[in-house]
Every structure is written in C-alpha cells, then in structure tokens.
Amino acid sequence: MNARTLGTVVLAALLCGCGGSSKGEGDGGSDGKDGSSGTDNGGGGTVELNASLGIWLTQYPITKSTTFKEGPVSGFFMLKKDGDDLAGATVKINGTLIPEAPGQFQSPGSYDPAYAADIPIAPGGTMTITVDENGHHHEFSFVCPAEVTITEPAENTSVSVNDQITVRWTGTIKYQNSVYDPILNLFEYDPDTGTNISLLGFDPGPYHLNENDTSLTLTLPDTSRPQYFVELSIPGDLTQNDTAMGYCGLRRRVHLVRQ
What is the DSSP code (8-state) at residue 100? Predict the structure, then answer.
C-alpha cells in the first residue's frame, strides 16, 4: 500500500463519524431545505455526506496502480442515513452515476468517482452530488477552485538527482478552508506500474503554502524510479455545517524524467 492510499484509509476511518446532514423535515408533503447544500423532498430522515478528504479534479491521474485508482475526478466519500451506512442509494455527481463500494472501499455507503464514467466538471465549476433513496432526493454542492497552472518546470523535463528545480504557478491557491492548506509535494514515480511514493514523507512532509506564494525551490533526492512528479494540491472552500462536510479541490502535476 502506498503512502497516499494508507493516508486516505486512515483518515477516512478517523473522519467517518464526521459530516453534515441533509434533513427531511415535515410530513413529506412539502420540500424540506437542507441549508446551503441543496434540498430534499421532505420526510426523508437525516442523510449525512462526509467528503472531508476532498473530491479532487486531478491532472494526469494515475491509471496503472494496482493498489488504488485515480480518475479525472477522484475522492472517497461516505453517506449515512440516521447514523447508519446508506446502502442502495442512487448517487450521482453532475448527473453521472457513482458506483457504491468500489475498489478498495468495499463498505456500503462508500463512493469514489474515480470508478465512474466521465463527469462533466471543470475548475471553477460547481460539483453537485445528488442522492436518491426510498423516494427521497438530496443534493449537496461544492464550488471547485479556479484553474491553477504550473508554468515551470515544463512537463517531462529531463532532470538528475540533486538538481535544484523551481516550481512556479499561476492562479489562486488559498480558499476559505480552515482545515487544509494548499501544499506542494514531490513523488518518485514509475509510469509502467503506477507506483508512487512521496519523497517528502512525514518529516518534513509536503510544503504548506501561503496565499501569496507563487514558487518554491527544492532539491531532487535520490530515487530508483525513472520519474518524479511534482503535485500542487489546492483545497477549495470547506463546507462544514449540519448539512455536509467536504470540499472540491484541484491536483495539478508535472512529471520530471530522470536522465
């Protein structure tokens, strides 16, 4: 299991009790509001959405890994109803069906859009998750960050161990998110197997960026893999209330090829 997958599983376990709810109120005769995240059709009980690890618009998703799956939209999230795992619901993101309990997440009420067909969403757009269960309809929405572009180094730049590289980018990287910072990470990478491991590890760990940062210089450590990739992660506005917990984020990448 690589570092990204291990971190996802551990954090998902820790956070599974968190999240908000889409509340169906009244006797079912009229639509009940669930706050800023959307509506349900009343009388539907309490549906909770936990996307606290983020749902990511991912540049250059890793498709060959045998331990996890990425797609242009990736991000494990969970649904509960009245405190129990919500199994058997019809869940969509922007109209695209999201399969339940896919891949490494085999528990009812878990979803990962990496296992879905193409999802119509772009940076700066709105991601709407709809949940239909037992005749009730719920909606949760997150606004995705505007596009951020890594301008330097160029994709597939040739590099050597111990080279210093300066990563530069344009665009807004800081949003209203009190839990997660924008970060820059460096991975060793094998494109034939999808193997990727953070070279920054837990100490010192990924670089936490400030709002006005537009570049960062780092030294490429030794690796046995044929490539590196730099990843810039931008978490969007965090929704954290009694209707949902989560956000949409961007992952922007550039690959570096060892000479």
Answer: B
